Amino acid sequence: MTDIFSMTGDIDPVAAAHPQPLMKMMRDAAPIIDMGPEAMVLVGGDEDIRFVLGHPEIFSSGIDAVNIGQIRPLIPLQIDPPRHKNFRKLLDPIFAPKQIALLEPATRALVRELLVGLPEKNGCNFHTEMAERLPTIVFLQLLGLPVSRAAEFIELKNGILRPPTHSIEARNAATAATGQKIYAVLQEVIDERAVEPKEDFISMFLAAEVDGQRLTQEDVLDIGYLFFLAGLDTVTASLDCMIAFLAEHPEHRQQIVDDPSLIPHAVEELLRWESPVQGVVRITTQETEVSGCPIAANRVVSVMLGSANTDERTWDGADEIRFDREANKHIAFGGGVHRCLGSHLARMELRVAMEEWHAAIPNYSLVEGNVLLYSQGLRAIDNLELVW
Ligand code: HEM
Q1: pLDDT tops 80 at residue 305
Q2: Which residues does ligand 1 sit against, CB inside 6 Å?
Q3: Contacts of 296 (CB under 8 A, 6+ apart)
Q4: Could you tell me the domains of the chain?
Q5: What are the strands, taking DSSP E only, across 113-235?
Q6: pLDDT reported for residue 166
Q7: Is-above-0.85 flag for pTM?
Q8: Is the dihedral angle over the CA atoms 89, 233, 140, 223 positive or is it negative?
Q9: Between residues 184 and 212, which one has the greater pLDDT?
Q10: What is the spatial distance between Cα 211 and Cα 119, in angstroms, rounded to a whole number?
C-alpha cells in the first residue's frame, strides 16, 4: 500500500523542490526501475506512461493501490471499467466547463475576501493564507458543508495526507481513525440532504440518474470521500508550486503581470513543469511488459506523471518554461479513463487565484534563507513564506 498519488517514499528537500533532474536520470537509466519485490516498479517515459494509463485492464486502479483511510473503493478512482463508465456518465455533466463557469464569480469573490488586508502587510505564508484555504472553502460550499468548519476540514485532510508519524503501523492507525471521522461528517450531510435537498453537489449526486439508475447513499459517501482528498490538496499543492516558481523567477512573473491574458497559458505550463501530482499508482492484473521490460502480476506500478511531462522525447524544449507554448498536452491531470474529473474546476480556481493575487500583489519574493519544504507525493509547501 502507498499514499495517494505518491511515488517513491522519502526524497531529500532539494530533489523534492526540483524533481525534474531526478526524473531525467531515471528515464535515462532504463524504461522501468524495479525497486524490489516488496516495493514499486517505476515507469517514467511519456509514451510508456500513456500506454499504462490507456490499459486499465492490465494496470488496475483498484482499492489495493492506495491507502487513504477508505473502507471501500473510492468512486470513481478505484473502480475499473466497465463499471467506471457509469459513474463518469453521471458525474461528468456536473463538472462540465459550463457548470464550472457558473462558480467563477463566487470563487473570485472568495479570493478577494482572502486577500483583504494582505497587500498592506509586507508578507505572509502563502500556503496557509491562500493555497490551503481557497480549495477548502470552495469544496465546503460545493458540497454544502458549513464554511465555518474549514479549519476542521483542513485538519482532517492533513491527518490523512500528512500523517504526523513515519512508523507505518502508527500511520495506518491514524489514517483509519481520521477516515472514520470524514465518513461520519459526510454521512451527516447525506442524511440531511436525503430528507431536504439543497442546491449543492451532495443533493445533485443523490438525485442524479443514468440509464434509469441512481447512486446509492453508500456510492455518494464513497464519491464524497474521494473528492475530499482529491479536490483539496491537489489545488493547494498546485497553487504553492506555481507561486514558489514565480517568486523565484521574476522575469516569468513580470510576463503575467504585464499581460494577465497569459495566465491561462502560464497555469498550463506550470502544471506541466511542476506536475504537483508527481505520480499515480496502478496494480498489474497479469504478467505484462513495458518497453520490453517484464513486470510480474500483482505489482504496484508508480506512473510518474512529472517525468512524462518533462520527457525530452515528447517535449520540444522540455526544460524551458514557456508561457507561449502552442499545444500543451501535459498529463498533470492524469490520462486514460481516470483522467481528473475536477480538472475544469481546478483550472478555474487556479486561474482566478493567479489573476486576483497578481492584481493585488504583483511583486513578491521568497524569504531569504528559508528552505522550502515540499511535502511528499503531492508537492505542497507548508512554509511558503513570501515578502513584498
Ligand atoms: C490542480 C489540481 C488537480 C490535479 C493536479 C489533479 C490531478 C489528478 C490526477 C493526476 C488524477 C488521476 C488519478 C489516477 O489516474 O490515478 C485525478 C483524478 C481525479 N480527480 Fe483530480 N486533480 C486536481 C483537482 C481535482 C479537483 C478540484 C477535483 C474535484 C472534485 C478532483 C477530482 C478528481 C477525481 C474524482 C478523480 C478520479 C477520476 C476517475 O477515476 O475517473 N481533482 N486528479
Answers
A1: yes
A2: 61, 76-77, 88, 226-227, 230-231, 234-235, 238, 276-277, 280, 305, 332-334, 338, 340-342, 345-346
A3: 284, 287
A4: 13-362+369-381 (1.10.630.10)
A5: 123-125, 209-210, 213-214
A6: 66
A7: yes
A8: positive
A9: 184
A10: 52
